[in-house]
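quick one
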Amino acid sequence: MSDDLNFSDYDFTKIPFDRLVRVGQRSLLGKDLFCVSWLLGRFCNYRCTYCWPYGRSDKKDHRPTELVLSTLDEIKRQARDRGFNSFHFSFSGGEPTLHPGYLKILHHYNDDIKNCNYQSVHMTTNLSAGIGWFKKYVVATKDLHRVSITASFHKEFANQEQFRDKLIFLQENKVQTTINMVMVPERFELLWEDALFFHEAGLNVTLKPQSNKTATKIVEGYTEGQLDRLQQGMPQRDYTTARLKKKKQAPPLMQVEFIDDKGNPWYMDQAERFNCYDFNNFKGWECSAGYRSIIIREPDGSIKRSYSCNDEPLGNIETGFNLFPTPKLCMTPHCVSSADSKIPKRKLGTKLPLWPGDKTFEAR
Ligand code: SF4
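structure w/ iron/sulfur cluster:
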């Protein structure tokens, strides 16, 4: 791929998915970054018709704040033992803003910044909390290197103007925002209009295909034209800027990097897009999930290497856990969550590091 690549013309359909040998989020490939994806509870105040039955609950199921804080400290201790002292915590639910101790948890995380090389936080939210709550959120996360939000727009419940205005407030306070829209086939064109409304307001929009019940495939019912639009998506705002400036480097919003079997780099804006290309089978690859990343899942409190993995859990939030001593082979046929697929992994035998200074491939 040439150096003077014009990213405005970047065509994801040209990526040679069957020849890729390393995959990962760029921030994880290039830093001593330990990544935590933490589902704080299933409790949600919305009841979207397309939400999976296990995706939400009417019952308040949050763990005590003190247990969350001590688990957070233990994660950092074990990660530091493995040489990682940069952290990315990603909170979701249910609806994470409904955890009663959420702002306290964020203050605790924020206040450890002086002991870390880098810290960032992400939240996936339905954005139903009021603007007053988001003002407190900005204060609670003020020292972090990066704060980002994926806001899911649920048309059945959310007011479009208020949704837009909260995101503009967050952007003005240096919170990176992206709107996720699940493009249900039956309402595709209406949702497309909504996506354009947000796009015109200067907001990033990621179009997500609706997944089947097992989350292994996208549902039937999309026309070819709709699938094309899902695959190409809407230009991300930085991406558009890149066109104007003709940047020679991939812009930061190209979050994912691939290397093919000839050593060429390829890029994608969001791992959410992998499923549109049926690119989710890493069985037999060496994956660093469980070594430099974990997920915490409710309602059972299990701590696992990642959401999709068939491996035994690493432990439980109530009884403790142990990270893997080294990256391990993937034993799972479908790596379906974007939180999982972006964790750096390489085809077995590939002599490329998964983080700076990684020499674990030499041991094989
Ligand atoms: S399913 Fe798990 S082990 Fe396999 S590639 Fe995905 S995150 Fe890694």
